[in-house]
Amino acid sequence: MYSLARPFLFCLDAERAHDLALIAIEAAYRTGLNPLLAAKLAPLPAKIFDIEFPNPVGLAAGLDKNGAHIDALAALGFGFIEVGTTTPQPQPGNPKPRMWRLPEHLAVINRLGFNNAGVDALVRNAERARYSGVLGINIGKNKDTSNDRAVDDYLFCLERVYARANYVTVNISSPNTQGLRDLQEEETLKRFIGTLREAQEKLAAQHGTRKPMLLKIAPDLSEAELDGMAAVLLAAKIDGLICTNTTIDRSAIAGAPHAEEAGGLSGKPLFQKATSVLRRMAKRLEGKIPLVGVGGILDGTDAADKISAGASLVQFYSGMIYRGPALIGECVEAIRKIAPK
Fold first, then answer.
1. Which alpha helices (H) appear in the chain, and where do they start and end?
2. Of 173, 174, 266, 318, which residue is the catalytic one?
3. N or C: lower Cβ tally within 10 Å for the chain?
4. Is residue 146 among the annotated active site residues?
5. Calculated CA dihedral for residues 21, 92, 133, 193, nearest 10 degrees
6. Which domains occur in the chain, in start order?
7. What confidence tens digit (pLDDT) does each residue in 220-258 have?
8. Residues of the chain where predicted confidence (pLDDT) is lower than 70
């Protein structure tokens, strides 16, 4: 069914098509037409971060920023759903146009800029959802919050989402909020993560349950930066690491229409860079911190390659744009083939 709808969606502005696709997925869910979008999947259970996942293929943050379509997206067969990025206060994001498809490269460029309705709206949506599976909530900072006060925004969001989330992702790697990636610098990260870890343990005591906290990093990091980051994460005993966010590197699409647009590049051109970071961090972390592989998954082989590179779970977003819900089952089956018997 998605293959029939895709030509129509690709005639529209990318952001408008994104909104319409979510409306269509929601309509299919509410009218019981989900089987036309995705087949029912056989389970492929995995236990990561002490959480039971029905399968290791998840939806990456960004598709449903406000958690308004959790039930509909979960019904497609994802093993887990990650919503957000959410911020303390609502914000419109960057001026439009701010999202472009590059079909010849199976790629997307976006500079959305954490456009969302604010964390309280997301929590209300998540609490209304019937979904009882694994829900991750991705948190960030408002655009007008300076980096020296950024941790306050993350603490605010962490406290608000803690009760509803199964895990929380700390996003300091989007290229679309000025200065955000500076929080990945080793000494800054050490203080930042230390503060959040203290808050995480206090919230665990208050709620009587400990929710894992993951960090999402950029693919544009040097070897020295990866060394420093690994040292910080091991010392802080963070629960998990997501490799990676979008890239600012344009070498893979040089000369293509829209290639010079500012923002993060995702889709197929990101695959090698993101998987390389995943593999290198897996080596540094030596199995002590579980990894989530995301970036450039467009077929089942890509998902299996992420697992082989060291990931315990995988996620995609741009793959939904180019392949639709059929990609979920394809990834599950490809991972099943390489899973230990």
1. 2-9, 14-30, 70-74, 119-128, 150-161, 186-207, 223-236, 271-285, 300-308, 318-323, 326-338
2. 174
3. C
4. no
5. 140
6. 41-338 (3.20.20.70)
7. 999 999 999 999 999 999 999 999 999 999 999 999 999
8. 1, 35-36
